[in-house]
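Two proteins, back to back. First:
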Amino acid sequence: MTGLLALSRLIDRLNTFVGGAVKWLLLVAVIICTVNAFVRYLFDMSSNAWLEAQWYLFAAVFLPAAGYTLLKNEHVRIDVVTGRFSPQTRAKIEIFGTLVFMLPVTGMIFYLSLPMVWDSFIHSEMSSNAGGLIRWPAKVLIPIGFVLLSLQGLSEMIKRFAFLQGLIPDPGEKRGHH
């Protein structure tokens, strides 16, 4: 279990790094959105590329940070039901949900996204909007995001098993934000 907990800490550090890095992309998206709005209203000019850049930046924040969100225990949950259970029962529910639902779904989305990303890359797929951007950089975020989410799911499952064995405190408690 010691090796698995070390792997869990490594995954946690990876997603903490990614979460810390992508938050700056949110600032860039807000700046682009603001400048684009001012230019559009003041000079009656706009560009599809700037609008698409905002969408791409949103994807660059949302998809890679999904694992970080899980690490911080901020995903939507059914706490109204599970909050009445013991921490051990909640840990067992988390393990079950991760094994039966999360990992299969994230694995399937990863697998199904690869041909789409590859096709977009080899064909240099461009947006259908006039002046739009190349699409593959945004599409590659899908498998990256789902790998990071899957890894964090694995980390959370390891921590739940360690908790059930009495090796660590309850990992299901809300963690502080960094």
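And the second protein:
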Amino acid sequence: MSISRFIDKLNEKIAGAVSWALLAAVIICAGNALVRYAFNYSSNAWLEIQWYLYGAMFLLASAHTLKRDEHVRIDVVVGRFSKRTQVWIDLFGFLLFLLPVCLLILYDAIPYAQISIQSQEMSSNAGGLIVWPAKLLVPLGFFLLILQGISEIIKRIAFLAGRIDGHEFAKHVTTPEEEIEAIKAANKLN
């Protein structure tokens, strides 16, 4: 369980840091639109940085989404089963689908990013940015998702063995107000 807790904390910290990418993307998007309409000036770099920030948000926060059990599921069907059966379904899903697919993507994404880094790949758009940071997000995001999958497997096995009661992986349903309060509390700690 200590490995699981470490992975959970790691992905919580990363998701908290990446959440600022949304604010940056919105500010850049609004600023770019204002400059384009007010001064008839635009740059591909500003459009590409928005794409990088959105990519970072989705790829680096997907592990946190898995931790919070907020990925798309078939709750209508699975919700009718006992908690133990639901845990078995989760366990098989992680082992037969999540981990193999993430490992396959990671296997293909590492050389993809590596070639981009070695060649210092640049955008083909005029005034574009370097591309390798965006391509590096793919293996990094899937690596974090694999780690979180391992954490979730550990928790499910611990539940089946009677070592935990299941609150570690229960669906976290919060209101927007509760989310804001949690962010404020987290910022006070940092």
